Protein backbone atom coordinates (compact mmCIF):
# COMPACT_ATOMS: atom_id res chain seq x y z
CA UNK A 1 0.00 0.00 0.00
CA UNK A 2 1.26 3.44 -0.93
CA UNK A 3 0.71 4.95 2.53
CA UNK A 4 2.85 2.26 4.15
CA UNK A 5 5.61 2.90 1.60
CA UNK A 6 5.56 6.65 2.32
CA UNK A 7 5.59 6.11 6.08
CA UNK A 8 8.33 3.48 5.92
CA UNK A 9 10.40 5.82 3.74
CA UNK A 10 9.92 8.61 6.29
CA UNK A 11 11.02 6.43 9.23
CA UNK A 12 14.00 5.06 7.27
CA UNK A 13 15.08 8.59 6.30
CA UNK A 14 14.81 9.75 9.90
CA UNK A 15 16.87 6.81 11.20
CA UNK A 16 19.49 7.51 8.52
CA UNK A 17 19.76 11.16 9.60
CA UNK A 18 20.00 10.08 13.25
CA UNK A 19 22.83 7.72 12.29
CA UNK A 20 24.85 10.72 11.06
CA UNK A 21 24.09 12.55 14.35
CA UNK A 22 21.41 14.92 13.06
CA UNK A 23 19.06 15.82 15.96
CA UNK A 24 15.64 14.18 15.66
CA UNK A 25 13.74 17.48 15.60
CA UNK A 26 15.98 18.87 12.85
CA UNK A 27 15.73 15.60 10.94
CA UNK A 28 11.93 15.64 10.98
CA UNK A 29 11.91 19.27 9.90
CA UNK A 30 14.30 18.63 7.00
CA UNK A 31 12.34 15.60 5.84
CA UNK A 32 9.11 17.59 6.02
CA UNK A 33 10.54 20.46 3.97
CA UNK A 34 12.16 18.16 1.38
CA UNK A 35 9.05 15.97 1.00
CA UNK A 36 6.81 19.00 0.65
CA UNK A 37 9.11 20.57 -1.97
CA UNK A 38 9.63 17.38 -4.01
CA UNK A 39 6.33 15.52 -3.73
CA UNK A 40 3.75 18.25 -3.04
CA UNK A 41 4.81 21.59 -4.55
CA UNK A 42 7.37 24.31 -4.10
CA UNK A 43 4.62 26.77 -3.25
CA UNK A 44 3.38 24.59 -0.41
CA UNK A 45 6.69 25.09 1.41
CA UNK A 46 5.63 28.62 2.32
CA UNK A 47 2.76 27.13 4.32
CA UNK A 48 5.30 25.52 6.65
CA UNK A 49 6.39 28.96 7.84
CA UNK A 50 2.77 29.80 8.67
CA UNK A 51 2.41 26.51 10.54
CA UNK A 52 5.58 27.15 12.56
CA UNK A 53 4.47 30.65 13.54
CA UNK A 54 0.84 29.89 14.33
CA UNK A 55 1.67 26.89 16.49
CA UNK A 56 4.61 28.41 18.35
CA UNK A 57 2.60 31.57 19.05
CA UNK A 58 -0.25 29.59 20.61
CA UNK A 59 -1.00 30.83 24.14
CA UNK A 60 -1.60 27.29 25.41
CA UNK A 61 2.13 26.56 25.01
CA UNK A 62 2.90 29.00 27.82
CA UNK A 63 2.02 26.09 30.11
CA UNK A 64 5.17 24.23 29.03
CA UNK A 65 7.86 26.47 30.60
CA UNK A 66 5.70 27.04 33.68
CA UNK A 67 5.41 23.36 34.58
CA UNK A 68 9.04 22.73 33.62
CA UNK A 69 10.14 25.60 35.90
CA UNK A 70 8.06 24.23 38.76
CA UNK A 71 9.72 20.84 38.47
CA UNK A 72 13.22 22.28 38.08
CA UNK A 73 12.89 24.49 41.17
CA UNK A 74 11.62 21.62 43.31
CA UNK A 75 14.34 19.30 41.99
CA UNK A 76 17.28 21.70 42.39
CA UNK A 77 16.18 23.04 45.77
CA UNK A 78 16.16 19.55 47.28
CA UNK A 79 12.45 19.62 48.06
CA UNK A 80 11.99 16.57 45.85
CA UNK A 81 14.37 14.41 47.90
CA UNK A 82 12.24 14.99 50.98
CA UNK A 83 9.57 12.91 49.27
CA UNK A 84 11.88 9.89 49.22
CA UNK A 85 12.82 10.28 52.88
CA UNK A 86 9.15 10.45 53.88
CA UNK A 87 8.04 7.59 51.63
CA UNK A 88 10.97 5.38 52.64
CA UNK A 89 10.23 5.84 56.35
CA UNK A 90 6.57 4.88 55.98
CA UNK A 91 7.21 1.86 53.72
CA UNK A 92 10.50 0.55 55.12
CA UNK A 93 8.95 -2.44 56.88
CA UNK A 94 7.31 -3.78 53.70
CA UNK A 95 9.14 -6.37 51.55
CA UNK A 96 11.49 -4.21 49.49
CA UNK A 97 10.33 -1.19 51.49
CA UNK A 98 12.98 1.23 50.23
CA UNK A 99 12.23 0.29 46.61
CA UNK A 100 8.50 0.67 47.25
CA UNK A 101 9.25 4.03 48.86
CA UNK A 102 11.16 5.00 45.73
CA UNK A 103 8.08 4.35 43.59
CA UNK A 104 5.99 6.40 46.03
CA UNK A 105 8.50 9.24 45.97
CA UNK A 106 8.58 9.19 42.17
CA UNK A 107 4.78 9.30 42.07
CA UNK A 108 4.77 12.27 44.43
CA UNK A 109 7.47 14.11 42.50
CA UNK A 110 5.69 13.33 39.22
CA UNK A 111 2.77 15.41 40.44
CA UNK A 112 4.94 18.54 40.30
CA UNK A 113 7.18 17.61 37.37
CA UNK A 114 6.24 16.72 33.80
CA UNK A 115 9.48 14.98 32.90
CA UNK A 116 10.48 11.34 33.28
CA UNK A 117 14.29 11.89 33.21
CA UNK A 118 14.09 14.70 35.78
CA UNK A 119 12.00 12.51 38.09
CA UNK A 120 14.44 9.60 37.77
CA UNK A 121 17.45 11.87 38.32
CA UNK A 122 16.01 13.74 41.32
CA UNK A 123 14.82 10.69 43.23
CA UNK A 124 17.60 8.39 41.97
CA UNK A 125 20.37 10.60 43.29
CA UNK A 126 19.33 9.76 46.85
CA UNK A 127 17.35 6.50 46.54
CA UNK A 128 19.88 4.33 44.66
CA UNK A 129 22.82 4.98 47.03
CA UNK A 130 20.48 4.50 50.01
CA UNK A 131 19.22 1.14 48.77
CA UNK A 132 22.71 -0.12 47.93
CA UNK A 133 23.94 1.02 51.35
CA UNK A 134 21.20 -1.07 52.96
CA UNK A 135 22.20 -4.22 51.08
CA UNK A 136 19.67 -4.07 48.23
CA UNK A 137 20.49 -5.71 44.92
CA UNK A 138 21.93 -3.12 42.54
CA UNK A 139 19.57 -4.32 39.83
CA UNK A 140 16.53 -3.80 42.03
CA UNK A 141 17.77 -0.38 43.14
CA UNK A 142 18.35 0.84 39.59
CA UNK A 143 15.29 -0.86 38.13
CA UNK A 144 12.84 0.51 40.69
CA UNK A 145 14.20 4.04 40.24
CA UNK A 146 14.18 3.92 36.44
CA UNK A 147 10.65 2.52 36.39
CA UNK A 148 9.43 4.95 39.05
CA UNK A 149 10.82 7.80 36.98
CA UNK A 150 8.46 6.92 34.16
CA UNK A 151 5.55 8.08 36.33
CA UNK A 152 6.84 11.61 35.75
CA UNK A 153 5.00 11.78 32.42
CA UNK A 154 1.83 9.89 33.34
CA UNK A 155 0.83 11.54 36.60
CA UNK A 156 0.01 15.17 35.70
CA UNK A 157 1.43 17.61 34.86
CA UNK A 158 3.03 15.98 31.82
CA UNK A 159 5.04 17.54 29.00
CA UNK A 160 4.18 14.70 26.54
CA UNK A 161 0.47 15.16 27.31
CA UNK A 162 0.80 18.85 26.48
CA UNK A 163 2.44 17.95 23.17
CA UNK A 164 -0.27 15.37 22.46
CA UNK A 165 -2.96 17.92 23.27
CA UNK A 166 -1.45 20.49 20.91
CA UNK A 167 -1.06 18.01 18.05
CA UNK A 168 -4.56 16.53 18.39
CA UNK A 169 -6.35 19.69 19.62
CA UNK A 170 -7.49 17.75 22.68
CA UNK A 171 -8.19 19.42 26.03
CA UNK A 172 -4.93 19.44 28.00
CA UNK A 173 -6.86 19.81 31.24
CA UNK A 174 -8.84 16.64 30.52
CA UNK A 175 -5.66 14.80 29.53
CA UNK A 176 -4.08 15.78 32.84
CA UNK A 177 -7.10 14.58 34.80
CA UNK A 178 -7.23 11.38 32.72
CA UNK A 179 -3.70 10.52 33.85
CA UNK A 180 -4.51 10.51 37.58
CA UNK A 181 -6.13 7.08 38.00
CA UNK A 182 -3.84 5.31 35.47
CA UNK A 183 -0.87 6.91 37.23
CA UNK A 184 -1.98 5.58 40.61
CA UNK A 185 -2.69 2.20 39.03
CA UNK A 186 0.79 2.06 37.46
CA UNK A 187 2.44 3.01 40.76
CA UNK A 188 0.57 0.17 42.49
CA UNK A 189 1.53 -2.33 39.76
CA UNK A 190 5.21 -1.32 40.02
CA UNK A 191 5.09 -1.69 43.81
CA UNK A 192 3.39 -5.08 43.48
CA UNK A 193 6.19 -6.32 41.22
CA UNK A 194 8.80 -5.22 43.76
CA UNK A 195 7.02 -7.02 46.60
CA UNK A 196 6.67 -10.18 44.48
CA UNK A 197 10.35 -10.11 43.52
CA UNK A 198 11.44 -9.69 47.13
CA UNK A 199 9.12 -12.40 48.41
CA UNK A 200 10.55 -14.83 45.83
CA UNK A 201 14.15 -13.74 46.46
CA UNK A 202 14.42 -12.19 49.94
CA UNK A 203 18.19 -11.76 49.57
CA UNK A 204 17.78 -8.93 47.02
CA UNK A 205 16.26 -6.65 49.67
CA UNK A 206 17.10 -7.27 53.35
CA UNK A 207 14.24 -6.51 55.72
CA UNK A 208 14.62 -3.41 57.88
CA UNK A 209 13.83 -4.26 61.48
CA UNK A 210 14.56 -0.93 63.20
CA UNK A 211 11.40 0.88 64.23
CA UNK A 212 11.23 4.54 63.37
CA UNK A 213 9.85 6.80 66.12
CA UNK A 214 6.58 8.48 65.25
CA UNK A 215 8.24 11.86 65.80
CA UNK A 216 10.73 11.11 63.03
CA UNK A 217 7.91 10.00 60.73
CA UNK A 218 6.01 13.22 61.37
CA UNK A 219 9.11 15.33 60.79
CA UNK A 220 9.82 13.63 57.44
CA UNK A 221 6.18 13.97 56.41
CA UNK A 222 6.24 17.65 57.34
CA UNK A 223 9.26 18.25 55.11
CA UNK A 224 7.47 16.60 52.17
CA UNK A 225 4.14 18.35 52.83
CA UNK A 226 4.89 21.53 50.81
CA UNK A 227 5.46 19.53 47.63
CA UNK A 228 2.26 17.56 48.18
CA UNK A 229 0.28 20.75 48.79
CA UNK A 230 1.62 22.37 45.62
CA UNK A 231 0.67 19.27 43.61
CA UNK A 232 -2.83 19.18 45.09
CA UNK A 233 -3.33 22.89 44.43
CA UNK A 234 -2.41 22.44 40.75
CA UNK A 235 -4.51 19.33 40.09
CA UNK A 236 -7.54 20.38 42.16
CA UNK A 237 -7.68 23.81 40.52
CA UNK A 238 -7.68 22.21 37.05
CA UNK A 239 -10.18 19.47 37.97
CA UNK A 240 -12.75 21.81 39.50
CA UNK A 241 -12.30 24.46 36.83
CA UNK A 242 -10.86 27.09 39.15
CA UNK A 243 -7.96 27.59 36.75
CA UNK A 244 -6.86 26.63 33.26
CA UNK A 245 -3.73 24.46 32.94
CA UNK A 246 -1.73 27.60 32.08
CA UNK A 247 -2.99 29.47 35.14
CA UNK A 248 -2.42 26.43 37.34
CA UNK A 249 1.13 26.15 35.96
CA UNK A 250 1.80 29.79 36.83
CA UNK A 251 0.50 29.31 40.38
CA UNK A 252 2.51 26.09 40.77
CA UNK A 253 5.75 27.66 39.54
CA UNK A 254 5.30 30.69 41.79
CA UNK A 255 4.41 28.50 44.77
CA UNK A 256 7.49 26.32 44.20
CA UNK A 257 9.80 29.35 44.11
CA UNK A 258 8.21 31.02 47.15
CA UNK A 259 8.24 27.76 49.15
CA UNK A 260 11.87 27.01 48.32
CA UNK A 261 12.89 30.56 49.23
CA UNK A 262 10.91 30.49 52.48
CA UNK A 263 12.58 27.21 53.47
CA UNK A 264 15.98 28.68 52.53
CA UNK A 265 16.62 25.94 50.00
CA UNK A 266 16.87 28.13 46.90
CA UNK A 267 19.86 30.36 46.22
CA UNK A 268 20.00 32.85 43.37
CA UNK A 269 22.51 30.62 41.56
CA UNK A 270 20.10 27.66 41.76
CA UNK A 271 17.21 29.79 40.52
CA UNK A 272 19.34 30.92 37.59
CA UNK A 273 20.18 27.30 36.84
CA UNK A 274 16.50 26.34 37.00
CA UNK A 275 15.62 29.14 34.58
CA UNK A 276 18.42 28.08 32.24
CA UNK A 277 17.24 24.46 32.27
CA UNK A 278 13.68 25.62 31.67
CA UNK A 279 14.68 27.65 28.61
CA UNK A 280 16.72 24.78 27.19
CA UNK A 281 13.97 22.20 27.68
CA UNK A 282 11.30 24.53 26.30
CA UNK A 283 13.42 25.30 23.24
CA UNK A 284 13.89 21.57 22.62
CA UNK A 285 10.14 21.05 23.00
CA UNK A 286 9.32 23.82 20.53
CA UNK A 287 11.86 22.63 17.97
CA UNK A 288 10.52 19.09 18.22
CA UNK A 289 6.95 20.33 17.85
CA UNK A 290 7.73 22.40 14.76
CA UNK A 291 9.83 19.65 13.17
CA UNK A 292 7.04 17.16 13.82
CA UNK A 293 4.44 19.48 12.34
CA UNK A 294 6.55 19.90 9.19
CA UNK A 295 6.78 16.15 8.67
CA UNK A 296 3.11 15.70 9.61
CA UNK A 297 2.10 18.33 7.02
CA UNK A 298 4.01 16.51 4.27
CA UNK A 299 2.63 13.10 5.22
CA UNK A 300 -0.91 14.48 5.40
CA UNK A 301 -0.63 16.11 1.96
CA UNK A 302 0.59 12.75 0.65
CA UNK A 303 -2.52 11.13 2.13
CA UNK A 304 -0.73 8.84 4.57
CA UNK A 305 -3.03 9.28 7.63
CA UNK A 306 -6.15 9.02 5.50
CA UNK A 307 -5.02 5.88 3.68
CA UNK A 308 -3.74 4.33 6.91
CA UNK A 309 -7.10 4.98 8.57
CA UNK A 310 -9.04 3.51 5.64
CA UNK A 311 -6.79 0.45 5.59
CA UNK A 312 -7.01 -0.26 9.34
CA UNK A 313 -10.77 0.32 9.58
CA UNK A 314 -11.42 -1.92 6.57
CA UNK A 315 -9.71 -4.93 8.15
CA UNK A 316 -12.12 -7.70 9.07
CA UNK A 317 -10.85 -8.08 12.62
CA UNK A 318 -11.95 -6.88 16.05
CA UNK A 319 -10.90 -3.27 16.82
CA UNK A 320 -8.92 -4.37 19.88
CA UNK A 321 -6.66 -6.49 17.67
CA UNK A 322 -5.73 -3.40 15.65
CA UNK A 323 -4.97 -1.53 18.89
CA UNK A 324 -2.74 -4.41 19.98
CA UNK A 325 -0.86 -4.26 16.66
CA UNK A 326 -0.40 -0.49 17.06
CA UNK A 327 0.95 -1.05 20.58
CA UNK A 328 3.41 -3.67 19.34
CA UNK A 329 4.59 -1.22 16.69
CA UNK A 330 5.01 1.49 19.36
CA UNK A 331 6.93 -0.94 21.56
CA UNK A 332 9.41 -1.65 18.76
CA UNK A 333 9.68 2.01 17.74
CA UNK A 334 10.41 2.94 21.35
CA UNK A 335 13.67 1.01 21.23
CA UNK A 336 15.09 3.26 18.53
CA UNK A 337 13.55 6.73 18.97
CA UNK A 338 13.30 9.11 21.91
CA UNK A 339 9.87 9.32 23.57
CA UNK A 340 8.66 12.71 22.32
CA UNK A 341 9.72 11.88 18.76
CA UNK A 342 7.56 8.75 18.87
CA UNK A 343 4.59 10.85 19.89
CA UNK A 344 5.12 13.43 17.14
CA UNK A 345 5.57 10.74 14.46
CA UNK A 346 2.89 8.24 15.42
CA UNK A 347 -0.05 10.32 16.64
CA UNK A 348 -0.83 12.08 13.33
CA UNK A 349 -0.64 8.74 11.49
CA UNK A 350 -2.81 6.56 13.75
CA UNK A 351 -5.17 8.93 15.59
CA UNK A 352 -7.69 9.14 12.74
CA UNK A 353 -7.90 5.34 12.56
CA UNK A 354 -8.14 4.95 16.35
CA UNK A 355 -11.04 7.43 16.54
CA UNK A 356 -12.73 5.77 13.54
CA UNK A 357 -12.56 2.46 15.40
CA UNK A 358 -14.58 4.03 18.22
CA UNK A 359 -11.87 4.84 20.75
CA UNK A 360 -11.62 8.13 22.64
CA UNK A 361 -8.63 10.36 21.76
CA UNK A 362 -8.08 11.08 25.47
CA UNK A 363 -7.85 7.33 26.16
CA UNK A 364 -5.42 6.93 23.27
CA UNK A 365 -3.34 9.77 24.70
CA UNK A 366 -2.91 7.82 27.94
CA UNK A 367 -1.99 4.66 26.01
CA UNK A 368 0.62 6.60 24.02
CA UNK A 369 2.00 8.10 27.25
CA UNK A 370 2.46 4.65 28.80
CA UNK A 371 4.21 3.47 25.64
CA UNK A 372 6.53 6.46 25.98
CA UNK A 373 7.16 5.34 29.57
CA UNK A 374 8.23 1.92 28.29
CA UNK A 375 10.51 3.57 25.73
CA UNK A 376 12.22 5.45 28.56
CA UNK A 377 13.46 2.21 30.18
CA UNK A 378 14.16 0.00 27.14
CA UNK A 379 17.60 -0.11 25.53
CA UNK A 380 19.37 1.00 23.48
CA UNK A 381 17.98 4.55 23.76
CA UNK A 382 16.07 4.52 27.07
CA UNK A 383 16.52 8.02 28.54
CA UNK A 384 16.08 6.98 32.16
CA UNK A 385 18.83 4.38 31.84
CA UNK A 386 21.40 6.97 30.80
CA UNK A 387 20.15 9.48 33.37
CA UNK A 388 20.75 6.99 36.19
CA UNK A 389 24.21 6.19 34.85
CA UNK A 390 24.98 9.90 35.06
CA UNK A 391 23.60 10.58 38.55
CA UNK A 392 25.10 7.35 39.97
CA UNK A 393 28.52 7.27 38.25
CA UNK A 394 29.62 3.95 39.78
CA UNK A 395 26.57 2.18 38.35
CA UNK A 396 27.20 -0.64 35.87
CA UNK A 397 25.06 -0.17 32.77
CA UNK A 398 24.22 -3.89 32.58
CA UNK A 399 22.76 -3.66 36.10
CA UNK A 400 20.68 -0.63 35.14
CA UNK A 401 19.32 -2.29 31.99
CA UNK A 402 18.84 -5.71 33.60
CA UNK A 403 17.01 -4.24 36.57
CA UNK A 404 14.75 -2.05 34.45
CA UNK A 405 13.55 -4.49 31.81
CA UNK A 406 11.44 -6.56 34.20
CA UNK A 407 9.41 -3.45 35.00
CA UNK A 408 8.15 -3.40 31.41
CA UNK A 409 5.81 -6.21 32.51
CA UNK A 410 3.60 -4.11 34.87
CA UNK A 411 3.52 -1.30 32.30
CA UNK A 412 2.21 -3.72 29.67
CA UNK A 413 -0.30 -5.07 32.19
CA UNK A 414 -1.44 -1.49 32.73
CA UNK A 415 -2.03 -1.05 28.99
CA UNK A 416 -4.02 -4.31 28.93
CA UNK A 417 -6.18 -3.11 31.84
CA UNK A 418 -6.82 0.20 30.10
CA UNK A 419 -7.84 -1.63 26.94
CA UNK A 420 -10.20 -3.87 28.92
CA UNK A 421 -11.51 -1.04 31.12
CA UNK A 422 -11.20 2.33 29.29
CA UNK A 423 -13.09 4.07 32.10
CA UNK A 424 -9.95 3.91 34.23
CA UNK A 425 -8.75 6.80 32.09
CA UNK A 426 -12.09 8.31 31.09
CA UNK A 427 -14.01 8.34 34.39
CA UNK A 428 -12.54 11.52 35.88
CA UNK A 429 -12.53 13.55 32.61
CA UNK A 430 -16.17 12.55 32.17
CA UNK A 431 -17.03 14.32 35.43
CA UNK A 432 -15.58 17.66 34.29
Overview of the structural elements:
The chain is mainly alpha-helical and 432 residues long. It has one domain (2-29, 59-431). Helix content is 77%, strand content 0%. The chain has 22 helices and no strands. Helix 3 (45-56) packs antiparallel against helix 14, helix 7 crosses helix 19 and helix 12 packs antiparallel against helix 13 (245-262). The longest helix has 34 residues, at 268-301. It is globular, with a radius of gyration of 22 Å. The two termini are 42 Å apart. The model has no long low-confidence stretch (mean pLDDT 85). It is a multi-pass membrane protein.
Tag the structure with descriptive keywords.
mainly alpha, 22 helices, 77% helix, transmembrane helix, TRAP_DctM
List the helices and strands and how they pair.
Elements: H1 2-19, H2 24-40, H3 45-56, H4 63-77, H5 79-91, H6 97-110, H7 116-133, H8 138-149, H9 159-168, H10 172-178, H11 180-200, H12 214-239, H13 245-262, H14 268-301, H15 304-314, H16 319-333, H17 339-356, H18 361-375, H19 383-391, H20 397-405, H21 408-420, H22 423-431
Helix pairs in contact: 1-2, 1-15, 2-14, 3-14, 4-13, 4-14, 5-6, 5-7, 5-12, 6-7, 6-8, 6-11, 7-8, 7-19, 8-20, 9-17, 9-18, 10-22, 11-21, 12-13, 14-17, 15-17, 16-17, 16-18, 17-18, 18-21, 19-20
Residues in β-strands, percent: under 5%
Number of domains: 1
Give me the number of helical elements. 22
How many β-strand stretches?
A: 0
What is the typical, i.e. mean, pLDDT? 85
Content-based structural category: mainly alpha
Question: Which radius of gyration do the C-alpha atoms yield?
Answer: 22 Å
- Largest sheet, strands/sense/barrel: none
Low-confidence stretches: none
Share of residues in helices: over 70%
Morphology: globular
**H/E series:** HHHHHHHHHHHHHHHHHHHHHH
